[in-house]
Design brief:
Blueprint (H helix, E strand, L loop, with lengths): L1 H59 L2 H9 L3 H28 L9 H11 L1 H17 L3 H24 L7 H23 L9 H35 L2 H17 L1 H14 L6 H31 L4 H11 L2 H16 L3 H51 L2
Helix pairs in contact: 1-3, 1-4, 1-5, 1-6, 1-8, 1-9, 1-10, 2-3, 2-5, 3-4, 3-5, 4-7, 5-6, 5-7, 6-7, 8-9, 8-14, 9-12, 9-14, 10-13, 11-12, 11-13, 12-14, 13-14
Length: 401
């Protein structure tokens, strides 16, 4: 039991180190954007990043979780599949990058500036997909230190580009070039590190393998995609029903909120390979997540005014209220992260997909009703309500099994 928690702690600590660096960078960027481009510019910038994040997650599509589960974490078998997985991901992510740009004329929230920003950032979908594929090996070997190293290098390079572009008053869409530069450095660094872990790195695209991979992992991929849509559909609806300025206010709060949500994600990244072998310690992991979530809620409610003021320099008071409301959802988010991976471990992909689909529909309906009148305040409350509904459904499903 102690060895399990030492392993989880060590790997989570590495991921947290990386997140500290990336979060610090993100907050510097958001602060500079808020101060130099105002609410509307912040709204366009964050909405473009939110839009792209959907395609980043779609490029993942749960392939890593499926391969690890199928091979039960056996290193030689996982490594044997890696080149074919890389080839599949490159082709798939290239298709998604084309789709991300091709769909732009169809969205009611799309403006010329937003479309230009997405175009610049769309190439990062491929870079992200390659990095995620490298993470399969890093996760299986429990070497998140190597993954974090690549992330830190790319983050620092990207930050440098952002500072240069903002200080030289480049228009908002051009800021996504810095975003792309960071991702390029991340995936190149990951590949260089991978070359020392695995030899003969060469992507191989095999149509039969790719189709089989999609067939087996689509419930995970669809669930993850629905999850991010249900998380962020409110930003797009605020853009449609209200304004880019309201999107900026909400996304400032959500960016801080989302930073805290990586903690359960990192813990589960470290615990998942161990879960595949045994569910020992799952109760203690759950209690730990719950305790951390309560602490996070208390700290956020107290510190939100100071953090928002420090980040934006003023003028974003609505972000404080939004962040405090969002923090009430920490217990649900932390615990549902654990229950989701238990469902994946047990192979209940379709049940998990159905739960997320119901959550998305609930979230969409409530936002459609209340955003036109209450804007981002409604979105904040609905985000919290939706996650508790997801958690309740997960508990019901697991209790019935």
């Amino acid at each position: 039991m102690n060895s399990i928690f030492k392993t989880i702690f060590k790997q989570t600590a590495w991921q947290l180190l990386g997140k500290v660096v990336t979060s610090f960078s993100t907050f510097i960027i958001l602060g500079l954007v808020a101060r130099n481009y105002g609410k509307e510019g912040t709204g366009i910038f964050t909405l473009a990043l939110t839009y792209l994040s959907v395609f980043y997650l779609m490029s993942d599509f749960g392939f890593n979780a499926h391969v690890l589960s199928k091979e039960q974490g056996a290193e030689q078998k996982v490594e044997k599949e890696w080149n074919k997985l890389l080839g599949t991901r490159i082709v798939w992510s290239a298709m998604l990058a084309i789709l991300a740009v091709g769909l732009l004329p169809l969205w009611p929230f799309s403006t010329p500036q937003f479309a230009q920003a997405v175009f610049f950032g769309s190439f990062a979908i491929i870079a992200s997909a390659i990095y995620v594929t490298c993470n399969l090996i890093f996760q299986n070997k429990l070497r998140y230190d190597l993954s974090v190293l690549a992330t830190i290098l790319g983050t620092l390079v990207g930050l440098g580009f952002y500072i240069f572009l903002i200080f030289n008053k480049f228009p908002v869409p051009f800021l996504l070039i810095a975003h792309l530069a960071g991702w390029v450095v991340i995936f190149l660094s990951a590949l260089l590190i991978m070359n020392k872990v695995l030899h003969h790195l060469k992507p191989k695209f095999n149509l039969e393998y790719a189709l089989g991979l999609f067939k087996k992992s689509w419930p995970i991929g669809a669930t993850l995609t629905l999850n991010v849509l249900y998380f962020r559909v409110d930003s797009f609806m605020i853009a449609v029903f209200k304004s880019a300025g309201d999107v900026g206010v909400y996304n400032i709060a959500y960016s801080i909120f989302q930073t805290a949500l990586v903690l359960p994600t990192f813990i589960m990244n470290s615990y998942y390979p161990l879960m595949l072998k045994s569910l020992g310690g799952v109760r203690l992991v759950g209690l730990s997540l719950f305790g951390l979530s309560l602490l996070g809620t208390a700290l956020t409610i107290v510190l939100a005014p100071f953090v928002i003021s420090l980040l934006t320099g003023g003028g974003f008071s609505g972000s404080t209220n939004s962040l405090q409301i969002l923090s009430l959802g920490f217990p649900a988010y932390f615990l549902s992260s654990l229950l989701m991976w238990i469902l994946i471990t047990k192979g209940y992909y379709k049940k998990m997909f159905l739960i997320c689909l119901i959550g998305l529909v609930l979230n969409f309906i409530l936002n459609f009703i209340y955003i036109p009148q209450y804007s981002y305040i409604a979105s904040s409350w609905i985000t919290v309500i939706s996650e508790y509904a997801i958690l309740a459904m997960q508990v019901v499903v697991l209790s019935a099994l």
